Amino acid sequence: MRHLKLFVLLLMLPFLSGAQVDLSYFPHYNADLMEDLGVSAAQLQAIQTLDEDSGARKSDLYDALLYQADLNAALKTVEEDRIAALQSILTEAQKQAYQQFNADVEAEQRLTDLGRYRAMYLDTYRYLKLKDAQAQELAELELDVRDGKRKGASYADLKTDLLQEILSPKQWKKYSKKRKKERFETKTTLQEGANMTAMLEQQRKEMKFLEEVYVPQRNALRQKLEEKLSAQDQQVLAQLRAIYQEDDKAHEVRTAFYQQHIIDQDYKVRSVVHSDRPTFERAKALGIKLDKAIDALQPQLHELQEARYGGTEGLFMRGLPTSTDKYTEKVELVRNIAFLLIEPETTTTKTVSNAHQLRVYPLPATTTQTLQFEVQQSGELRIDLLDAQGKLLKVLFQETLTSGTHQREVELSQTTAGAFFYRIESADGVSLFKSLKVQ
């Protein structure tokens, strides 16, 4: 049967020729497919050797290149070389047969996904007694949004517009009534039996440890390096701090909350992108000069991180080093620079006082969540969306508001399921609230 399918594909070859076949993810390890395509043992060996060589080249680049732009360009070159070599190993008939195979797989997967989404909507909106055709249109919207075919409007707006279009007046009335009820209904019970009160209490404990133990002790360790820094060194660090604070592409530390966490994020080397290379090159020299002095502080820093994240397992789950062993030269250098950027005597984080009363619904959220909050003093207010580790995902709102109660709807369709935070900052103070999204 597989050979018959390949024969049919070969007959179609004249109609398929033209555009270059995408071989980025050519699955040479799939023995059945390789047999269908007629890939010989010699071709397989050449492809495997090619992949191993390309992998080794990429690994060397990750270890050697510090700047993201340099790394991206070098990785692109390696990948282009690999694809070009793969194009020369395979015959034209094999490439076209592989292209048709991919088209068949994608079509089959789309049908499967449509069925899954259709069943989901028939179950979710069973109170509306949806027809199959209505559920099918909603399922197609899901796939179009997922595949980037619907652009311009938000997912929530697209879905609302479609529901208005396909639902009968009676169905729309039921849907609107239920949605309104869900918005103003307080749900205290969360997934796995947790509740919002317990979540907020845990969050307050974490912030208390952060402010009263972690940050002061970490900054005290950083203070020990001050005597080793010249006036010129301090100037370099000041310039680099300014770059970090003003250039979103350099590092997401514009929010005070994330600045507090910079030492915990420094091992994510790929986030190091700088628009002012001369300044960073001077900082590199400073990081090299103080490498031994910073190494001597690592055991104490590591103990602090273990206490904060619940031991080795907590560090591992956040992608942080689980020991004080030496890493690659590049990682050590970035660690040093990140540590030097910490202000030694003061924390850049404003005290989190939970000055704003926030109500969120529905809880847990799925695709959208409504925020209702109080503003005591008129003025500028900013709401940030942070991930579970406190990293800025998006600035949701930044506007001038009058005192009183305000309400905003947040689009969460692109947010990963799990815990996340809202951070609110205004003249009233800074507040941090934990929330939850489920699939």
Characterization of this structure:
With 439 residues, the chain is α+β, with helices and mostly antiparallel strands. Among the domains are: 125-183, no CATH class; 191-340, no CATH class; 358-437, Immunoglobulin-like. 56% of the residues lie in helices and 13% in strands. It contains 17 helices and seven strands. The strands form two sheets. It has a four-stranded antiparallel beta sheet. Strands 1-2-5 form a three-stranded antiparallel beta sheet, with no helix packed on it. Strand 6 (418-426) and strand 7 (429-437) form a beta hairpin. Helix 4 packs antiparallel against helix 5 (68-89), helix 7 (132-146) packs antiparallel against helix 8 and helix 11 (231-246) packs across helix 14. The two termini are 40 Å apart. 21% of the residues are buried. The model is unreliable at 1-18, 185-194, 247-274 and 346-352 (pLDDT under 50).
